[in-house]
Structure formats: C-alpha cells, structure tokens
Recover the amino acids of this structure.
C-alpha cells in the first residue's frame, strides 16, 4: 500500500516511509496531507569523515531526533497536496556537528518539491502569464520569477549589442518584472527596428546596460519623452548624443493642456450663469481639439491658445 502511494506520487526514495494520508484544512483550504518519515541509515560524518563506529567499536555517528518540514507538491485530483516530512537528524561525537537527512525530491532548506519546479518550468515555455502559473501551481508570483531567473544560467551568453545612430527610448506597462511595474523599450529611430526590451526603467540599470554595449559614443540622437531621468543618460552614457523630445509626447501634452483649458473655461462660464456656451464647449470637444491642435501648433512660439468665436456662437 505504502509503495503504491509512493508510485502514485512518483517518489522513488527507498528511505522514505509513508505513515498516513489524511484530509486537513490548511490555510483555509481542504488539503490532502501525507505524513512521512525520511530516515536513511547512519553514514560517515560529512565534516570530519569519521566512520559510524571507530576502531574500538564505539558508535561515533548517532541519530539525533527528527526535523519536521512541510513540502508542497503538485495538486492531486484538484486538491492541494502537502507532505509533512520528518527528516532524520544526525550527530557526530568527534567534531560535534549536526546534519539532516536529504532527498532528491526537495532541496535542503526548500519547501517546494522539485516536481512543482519542473511543472513551473514546463509552463514557462507556454504563452501564459506568471500570475496564471503561480495560481495553477499554488505558489507565489515571486517563486515563479525566482525559478525563471534561475534558468538564466543555462542561456548562451548574448553578444554585445550595437546601438543605432538614432536611439528611441520609452517605457510601457508590462507586468513581466517583479522589480519594476514599467518595462523599458529602445528602437532604431531610422528603421524602426527593435533594439531591446529591458525589465526595468531604473536609471542605474539602464546606465549599466548601455555602458556594456559596443558603441554608446556612436549614438548621435536620443529620442525620448519628457522624463527627466532619461536626460541623465545623455550625460552619463551618450556623450555625443543630442536629446530630441518625441513629437508624439509633445502632441500628447498639448492635447492635455488644451482639454484642461476647455474644462476650466466651461466651469468659469457655468459659474457666471451662462448655460449655452458650456454646452457647446462640451458637445464640440472633438472639433475644438482638432482646431486647438492646429492653432496651438501655429501659435506655439507665442504661447497663445486660440479658440475661434465662430464655433461658440
Ligand atoms: Zn564529524
């Protein structure tokens, strides 16, 4: 019976003994709990190398109680599954060190079984979100992120990047990174080709990244929004680059300023008892925005916002 449970859980450690299987409420969820003991026979000391018995037949390595651990496994029949595992402790009488029995299915000081990690790695190859994987495997999102980062060591080292003469940079909300809500994107301003996407927009990380590129001094123009942090990049990393504020962001700020002005004007007219004009300002907002954009572009040097009276009357 015990071997059947071990086969079902795909556990092959011969020193693992299943003692009981029960249903318990764990973190307010009905959970399948397996009580087990891991007790391999005593072996030579890992620190001083002493044998279990010395030359006189005196016992050197002795059993020293059990350490209780709680290991999370993959769910079984839609029920969360945990193993309450008692690990045998050992003591060396020669060097007075203690150690705990370990098995292949869980790493020392870890509480998530290797089976769950393998499942997370398999799911990471699919087009699903980190939060979905975390929910599906009943672990936290930082756990999934940590496992993803641990795979970095298996990736081949990337060659150093060549930067284009015109470098466009911006940020976007991506949720891929646990360290920053916004990711960073940079592209070639002449061809529109993507250069790279970074998981964070923090200036220190960006500076390190661009300094490791082959030719930061060859960048002639840095096209950016009005984020002051990126202005620092030109000083620190791109000494020959001129800073250009992207037209998209200029128009976006102009639109916002115009809408603020329109709403302010509506409130002023309502306060003065005028009912017709605010209604026209509201219903013609799209047309006013178009005209406002053209006139603001024409008058931008004078700093004048212009609304034609013909629309309002
Ligand atoms: Zn020892």
């Amino acid at each position: 019976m015990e071997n059947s449970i071990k086969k079902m859980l795909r556990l092959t450690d011969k020193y693992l003994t299943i003692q009981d299987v029960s249903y318990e409420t764990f973190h307010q969820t009905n959970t399948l709990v397996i009580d087990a003991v891991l007790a391999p026979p005593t072996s030579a000391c890992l620190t001083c190398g002493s044998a279990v018995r010395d030359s006189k037949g005196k016992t050197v390595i002795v059993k020293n109680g059990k350490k209780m651990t709680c290991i999370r496994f993959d769910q079984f029949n839609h029920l969360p599954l945990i193993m309450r595992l008692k690990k045998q402790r050992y003591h060396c009488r020669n060097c007075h060190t203690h150690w705990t029995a370990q098995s292949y299915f869980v790493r020392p000081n870890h509480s998530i079984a290797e089976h769950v990690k393998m499942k997370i790695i398999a799911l990471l190859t699919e087009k699903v979100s980190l939060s979905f994987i975390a929910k599906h495997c009943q672990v936290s999102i930082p756990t999934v992120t940590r496992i993803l980062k641990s795979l970095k060591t298996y990736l081949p080292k990337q060659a150093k990047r060549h930067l284009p003469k015109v470098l466009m940079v911006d940020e976007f909300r991506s949720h891929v990174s646990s360290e920053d809500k916004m990711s960073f994107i940079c592209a070639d301003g002449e061809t529109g080709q993507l250069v790279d996407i970074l998981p964070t927009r923090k200036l220190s990380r960006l500076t390190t990244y661009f300094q490791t590129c082959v030719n930061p001094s060859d960048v002639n123009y840095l096209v950016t929004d009005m984020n002051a942090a990126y202005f620092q990049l030109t000083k620190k990393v791109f000494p020959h680059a001129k800073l250009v504020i992207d037209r998209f962001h200029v128009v976006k700020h102009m639109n916002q300023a115009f809408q603020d002005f329109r709403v302010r004007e509506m409130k002023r007219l309502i306060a003065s008892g005028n009912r017709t004009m605010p209604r026209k300002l509201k219903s013609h907002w799209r047309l006013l925005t178009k005209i406002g954009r053209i006139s603001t572009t024409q008058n931008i040097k004078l700093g004048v916002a212009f609304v034609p009276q013909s629309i309002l009357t």
Observations:
- The CA atoms of residues 71 and 110 lie 8 Å apart.
- Residues 45, 47-48, 50, 92, 94-95, 97 surround zinc ion (CB under 6 Å).
